Every structure is written in C-alpha cells, then in structure tokens.
C-alpha cells in the first residue's frame, strides 16, 4: 500500500496532511526516513512511524455500540442527520463505518459498526438467521396466546408471515395494562418487533436490543458508548 494512503487510512491526517509530514521527514519506515509519498509499504511487516508514533495498520474494525434513542443507526448521508457513527471519536472515527443491521431512531441498544462489508452482509443475510434479542415494554398486557402466536409466526399487517420467534414475558401488569418481555427473532424486517406486537394488539413503547448472535450488549456501555468487539465475540458472530 502507498505510504500516504496507509497513514491517512490510519488517521494520521488527511492525504494533504500526511504528504506534508512525509515531506518534512517526519515519517520513518523500518527506522529510515522516507520522503516518497508513493513508497510501497508492506503493511503486515513494515514498522511505520509518523512524528515518532508507531502507526499500526488494521484493515477492519468491529465496534459494539449502545445506540441511544434519537440517533439514526444510518443516516444514508443525509446532511444534518445525527447517526451512530457520528458518536465514534478520534480512536476509530477515521474508519468508514456502517451498521451491521439497523435499529429504529427511537430504539436503543446493541449496534455493530464496522468497515467490513462482508461481515455486515453475513450478519444481515436472511439465510444466516442470526438471532437478535430485544427487551420491550408494551401498552397492552402480553399473555400465553401471544407467546404461542410468536412461536408459530405472527402474520403482520401487510400479510407477511414472520419466522417463529420466542416471547418471554417478564411482567404482565393487569392493573396498569402494560407488560415487559424479551423477544428473540431470527430475521430483521423493518419495524419487525413493533409490528409483531401490533399484530397482537399491543404497542411497543420501549425497545432495546440486548444481544446479537448470542453476544450480549456489554452492560457497562452507557447510551452512546462503544468498545471493540473481542475476538471471542467476533468468533461467535462468525467473523472467522
Ligand atoms: N424491531 C423494531 O421494531 N425496531 C427495531 O429497532 C428493531 C427491531
């Protein structure tokens, strides 16, 4: 890879900034100053330093974010729209991040952000049936008939029959007319859980994704915080 590209990709500055650094003699490869922006770096083997700091090349990053409500998982490039990747700081913000699966703007919880397109495809591909777990609160009291209907595949308003889903009722408050539950689904249709609940006459008033593919959202992450997925978590998610 070209030296200027590697430095820019790793957040050492814009292409223009890193060219200046290189011209100033502030960049070393394997200890020797290199002033050629197009110098061919072996990113796996060469030691690259810019202004005395080692630049370790990584092609892909995988973040677990606790998405807050009020932020889109993906703004599709619409100017002025706040999206999840805007919450990523200087540590990973220079990567071209996209979400692996979406959450509604008013939903919270586990969102994977990565620059690995193949991984995104493998997570959202309907053929892989990656499980997603949601904690929900509803207006309307969930009951055993709802559990059965979810297990058999709820038919949505548009006639689509969902795959079987697991509904575990945590709280059914008859007096208050509200419920809490955990729903596990194996597909990711638009507004899926809200529409499933609605098809059973219940309105989801709060929704938080708490796990993806058997990997739980780290409880220490406050809304808007993120961390890298560990190797074990990535292995569970089928990254390698
Ligand atoms: N189902 C929904 O209805 N909304 C989400 O954000 C995720 C799943």
Question: What bound compounds does this protein have?
Answer: uracil
Shape: elongated
**Average pLDDT:** 95
Alpha-beta classification? alpha+beta
**Number of separate strands:** 13
Low-confidence runs (pLDDT<50, min 5 residues)?
A: none
Q: Specify the number of helices.
A: 6
| Distance from first to last alpha carbon | 24 Å
Helix content: 10-25%
Rounded to an integer, what's the Rg over CA atoms?
23 Å
* Whole-number tally of structural domains: 3
Q: What is the CATH class designation of the largest domain?
A: Alpha Beta
CATH superfamily of the largest domain, by name, is Pseudouridine synthase I, catalytic domain, N-terminal subdomain
CATH-defined fold name of the largest domain:
Alpha-Beta Plaits
**Helix-strand sequence:** HHEEEEEEEHEHEEHEEEH
Please outline the major beta sheet: 9 strands, mixed
CATH architecture of the largest domain: 2-Layer Sandwich
**How much strand?**
25-35%
């Amino acid at each position: 890879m070209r030296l200027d590209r590697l430095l820019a990709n790793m957040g050492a500055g814009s292409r223009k900034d890193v060219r200046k650094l290189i011209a100033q003699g502030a960049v070393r490869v394997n200890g020797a100053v290199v002033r050629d922006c197009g110098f061919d770096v072996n990113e796996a083997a060469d030691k690259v330093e810019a202004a005395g700091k080692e630049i370790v090349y990584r092609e892909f990053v995988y973040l677990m974010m606790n998405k807050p409500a009020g932020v889109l998982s993906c703004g599709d490039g619409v100017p002025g729209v706040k999206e999840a990747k805007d919450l990523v700081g200087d540590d990973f913000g220079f990567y071209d991040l996209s979400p692996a699966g979406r959450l509604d703007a008013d939903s919270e919880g586990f969102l994977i952000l990565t620059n690995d397109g193949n991984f995104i495809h493998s997570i959202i591909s309907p053929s892989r049936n990656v499980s997603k777990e949601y904690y929900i609160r509803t207006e309307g009291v969930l009951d055993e008939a709802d559990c059965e209907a979810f297990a058999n595949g709820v038919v949505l308003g548009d006639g689509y029959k969902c795959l079987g889903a697991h509904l575990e009722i945590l709280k059914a408050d008859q007096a208050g007319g509200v419920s809490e539950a955990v729903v596990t689904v194996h597909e990711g249709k638009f507004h899926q859980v809200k529409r499933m609940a609605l098809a059973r006459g219940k309105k989801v008033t709060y929704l938080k994704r708490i796990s993806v593919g058997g990997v739980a959202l780290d409880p220490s992450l406050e809304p808007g915080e993120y961390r890298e997925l560990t190797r074990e978590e990535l292995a569970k998610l089928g990254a390698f």
